[in-house]
Specification:
The structure holds 2 protein chains of 2 kinds.
Chain A lengths: L2 E10 L8 H10 L12 E5 L11 H4 L3 E3 L5 E3 L4 H6 L10 H4 L3 E3 L2 H5 L11 E3 L21 H4 L4 H9 L8 H4 L2 E5 L8 H5 L5 E4 L5 E3 L9 H5 L5 E4 L4 E4 L4 H5 L5 H4 L6 E9 L3 H5 L7 H8 E2 L4 H9 L4 H8 L2 H8 L4 E2 L10 E4 L3 H9 L7 H10 L1 H11 L4 H22 L6 H6 L4 H13 L2 H4 L10 H4 L32 H12 L39
Parallel strand pairs in A: 1-15
Antiparallel strand pairs in A: 1-12, 2-7, 3-4, 5-6, 8-9, 10-11, 12-13, 14-15
Helix pairs in contact in A: 7-20, 19-21, 20-21, 21-23
Chain B lengths: L2 H7 L19 H28 L15 H26 L2 H6 L4 H32 L1 H5 L3 H26 L10 H9 L5 H5 L3 H16 L23 E2 L31 H5 L1
Chain lengths: 557, 286
């Protein structure tokens, strides 16, 4: 047993209102640069829908993830090592910009500069790729809220599959019966196929927290990772010629604050915590013969942080005590393993994804309400879950490789929680038979309710910070040339776009951010903002902000 | 430079009797500079430039692929060009490195050798040329691809295409004009002599003018190589065949401060990569 720690996320889909705040804040934090206009590390899809990039789940076409070869061993769906090298000169399966969308802006200048005339000036859309006038035909969430689903809904690969397997029994009311939102980020898989596909070995998994990153210095732009990732969460920056991906906001995680998407989530549906898992058994688990056993296999990898044996093994691997403590309080462990209500997205890709989802009960509840039934009555809900096969089958294709039993069990637990807690809210004695009916106890249901309905910030995000003694190691390597206008500032360099050194992400900024965020006074109130914290200063050089600014007459104040 | 002047400036070299043939008229200062000095200058630029770029500009070291913008033409043209140029490279290795006496020793006659070299060389060369013409046409006509083209790229294309054209021209000339000296007795000995630091200037001086132009242009291409996107060839990912699929990397062995350290992957001995466990630091802790 080799115990490793993994920072993971759970999203409770019932609470997602599809506001895209996570996408927007993520984009502003990470991908608001030239070359990444079309890139959304975090995107929110309405399902049923084609997703972003379009139909990414159609692995017959896109060849993402792993499959088993004849001997039952894992093999990249897009081909082995020789095949990858042979396809290096023109990647055989590669999404084009049109599969994402052509990013655009508007010609706002016309609005103010247009000469006086009889017509109102119009800000026309301009392609960010060609700079020419463009016609907006698709975007990252074009089919938001089932927009155009009667035209294009059948293009959702999962709809296709469910329809095929249900022999077209569900055709029309399908679109009317349910819809839900699916926010997606990189899965930070335990068995990532992007990493396995990378010819340069530039993608790596951090041993400390399992975050998957791309070494921008080592990436050579072969783009095999884009093919390799079945979730299509590897992106090619067409200006720098390097692959980029969701970083799990590692500079924030290192100082113990949640990712930008989680921090800004309006519905508070995201949970971040750590898992302890057995790294030695990952490959074995990913090679489980039956796709439908992959969920159980993945769950088996997650180790019980209360188990003394696990704790001893974790200590032997050098996992610090506060990480073990965080593992014991981990909300993701509770939701995924203890309560078994969080499911991995597409376990059949065999990548062991580490962003888990609590499937939505709301399609079922909404339907009951629309039909005039009591949407919180246990009997009604259980009956509806059984009879509403289509949403359940759809969810099963997303989360359990088609095993409807697992999804049904989760939905029944969610339904039981609704009914059980309603009785308590109304002052009635709780009905323990509801809890027993789904194989839980009343106290477990209360625990689940606490976590899913009222958990506060520090219960939803249990993130142990990286260790102070590691602070230097965590700091991105800086460069004295990284001043404004210097060669490190990411403008066109000598060898084309963005050559030269990348702009460093210094941990100190995020420490300051964390201090401001958890401090008592409001941001910007004191003059200390922007100054160097001497406790973190390594004694070398004089970074900007070490001294207070010179006063106007040139003397030091 | 006249033969007389050459013999005056380089008194050590004896003037051959067939001085009427200007190409074989001994080695002048110009020849020494071109074939005895320039190769080392170019070598120094290639090695020094590559090392410098590798240290300074890892982030700019990429293929700068434009497949995201356009892949229909690229899918045909790029493999055509790349596989073609690899074949051309193989041909050069054969022609320049393997001495004539070796191939003759294994019974390959002059005629056989030239038939093979020219036929395969022409096919590879024409394929490469067709590939790059298609690529350049695509680059010029596809809006986003053209916009992503830098001045550096354009310069590189001129160098590359000219090297290809002079090479193909050389091949064609030697097909039709049999008076051109055999490159295996002129260019090849000179090329080999460079690497043992005793440049055989005389051998190269005796080569045909087309070979000289091609060799000079090739040296020019090599000299700009480290400073263009061509550097991606130096990091062809052959090690992909040998590395573990899953790459773990730890922070704990990194040195502190701002001194860049070489980044690499740490093998962690999960089950599918037992072959790497013997180098595994964590494994010894168990």
């Amino acid at each position: 047993m080799r115990v490793m720690a993994q920072v993971a996320m759970v999203m409770a889909l019932d609470k997602c209102i599809g506001c895209h705040t996570c996408s927007v804040t993520c984009k502003q934090a990470w991908t608001n640069r030239a070359g990444t206009e079309y890139v959304w590390f975090n995107n929110v899809e309405t399902r049923p829908g084609q997703g972003y990039p379009r139909r990414y789940e159609d692995q017959e076409k896109w060849k993402g993830g792993w499959e088993l070869n004849r001997r039952g061993n894992l093999k990249l769906r897009s081909g082995g090592r020789w095949a990858k090298l042979a396809g290096l000169f023109a990647s055989p399966v590669q999404p084009e910009l049109n599969d994402y969308y052509e990013p655009w802006t508007y010609d706002y200048e016309t609005l103010t500069n247009a000469p006086a005339g009889t017509d109102f000036p119009v800000a026309r859309p301009k392609s960010l790729i060609t700079g020419e006038d463009t016609k907006i035909e698709w975007s990252a969430n074009w089919d938001d809220n089932l927009g155009g689903v009667t035209e294009a809904g059948h293009l959702d690969p999962i709809v296709e599959k469910v329809r095929r397997e249900s022999e077209d029994r569900i055709t029309f009311e399908f679109e009317q019966t349910f819809a839900f939102y699916l926010p997606r980020i990189c899965e930070h898989c335990l068995n990532p196929s992007c990493m396995a596909s990378c010819p340069s070995g530039a993608i790596y998994k951090r041993t400390e927290d399992g975050i998957v990153l791309v070494d921008q210095d080592r990436c050579r732009g072969w783009r095999q990772c884009v093919t390799g990732c079945p979730y299509k969460k590897m992106y090619y920056n067409h200006k720098s010629g390097k692959a980029e991906k969701c970083t799990f906001c590692y500079p924030r995680i290192e100082v113990g604050i949640p990712t930008v998407c989680a921090e800004t989530c309006v519905g508070r549906l995201r949970y971040i915590g750590i898992f302890l898992y057995d790294a030695d058994r990952v490959t074995e688990a990913a090679a489980t013969p039956d796709e439908r056993d992959l969920y159980e296999a993945q769950l088996d990898l997650m180790l019980d942080p209360h188990d003394p044996e696990v704790v001893a093994a974790a200590r032997a691997e050098g996992i610090p005590e506060d990480w073990l403590d965080a593992a014991r309080r981990s909300p993701v462990y509770t939701l995924a393993k203890e309560l078994r209500v969080a499911l991995p997205l597409h376990p059949e890709y065999r990548t062991m994804p580490m962003v888990w989802y609590v499937p939505p009960l709301s399609p079922v509840v909404d339907l009951l309400k629309d039909q005039g039934h009591d949407g919180e009555d246990a009997g009604n809900l259980f009956g509806a879950i059984e009879s509403l096969r289509i949403p359940v089958e759809y969810l099963a294709e997303l989360f359990t490789a088609g095993d409807t039993q697992i999804v049904t069990d989760v939905l029944r637990k969610l339904a039981a929680m609704r009914s059980y807690m309603r009785d308590i809210a109304l002052g009635d004695p709780p009905d323990e038979s509801i809890a027993e009916g789904v194989g839980m106890t009343g106290s477990e249901i209360q625990k689940m309710y606490r976590l899913m309905a009222i958990a506060k910030y520090d219960e939803r995000y249990v993130i142990p910070s990286a260790h102070l003694e590691d602070a230097h190691n965590l700091e991105e390597i800086g460069c004295s040339l990284d001043v404004d206008g210097g060669p490190g500032m990411g403008q066109t360099g000598v060898f084309g776009e963005a050559s030269g050194r990348p702009t460093p992400v210094a941990v100190e900024n995020f420490n300051a951010l964390q201090a401001r965020q958890t401090g008592e006074s409001a941001t910007g109130e004191q003059q200390m903002a922007g100054r160097v914290n001497l406790l973190n200063w390594d004694g070398r050089g004089a970074p900007a902000g070490l001294f207070p600014p010179r006063s106007e007459d040139g003397d030091r104040p | 430079m006249t033969a007389t002047a050459a013999s005056l400036l380089a008194p050590g070299t004896s003037l051959p009797l067939e001085a009427a043939v200007p190409a074989a008229a001994g080695t002048g200062v110009g020849d020494i500079l071109l074939w005895g000095v320039l190769p080392y200058v170019v070598l120094a630029i290639v090695i020094g430039g590559t090392v410098w770029r590798y240290r300074y500009d890892q982030f700019g070291w990429t293929t700068r692929s434009s497949q995201l913008y356009e892949s229909r033409i690229l899918r045909i043209a790029s493999p055509l060009f790349h596989f073609g140029i690899l074949a051309v490279l193989a041909g050069h290795v054969m022609g320049l490195i393997i001495p004539k006496t070796w191939t003759e020793a294994v019974g390959v006659t002059e005629g056989m050798y030239h038939f093979l070299a020219l036929s395969i060389g022409l096919v590879a060369g024409v394929g490469t040329l067709l590939g790059i013409v298609l690529l350049i046409w695509r680059r010029r006509t596809t809006g986003p691809v053209f916009m992503a083209t830098t001045k550096n790229d354009k310069f590189m294309y001129i160098m590359l295409v000219a090297a290809l054209l002079t090479g193909l021209g050389t091949t064609l000339i030697s097909v039709f004009d049999h008076s051109v000296p055999d490159y295996r007795q002129t260019v090849s000995p000179w090329f080999r002599s460079i690497w043992i630091l005793q440049p055989d200037v005389a051998a190269m001086t005796a080569a045909g003018i087309s070979f000289k132009v091609h060799a000079l242009w090739a040296m020019g291409l090599f000299a700009v190589w480290p400073f263009t996107r061509l550097v991606h060839a130096f990091t062809a990912p052959v090690h992909y065949l040998f590395r573990p699929y899953i790459v773990y990397r730890s922070r704990d062995h990194r040195s502190t401060g701002s001194v860049p350290v070489r980044r690499g992957w740490d093998p962690v001995g999960t089950q599918d990569r037992d072959r790497s466990t013997h180098r595994n630091r964590a494994g010894t802790r168990r």
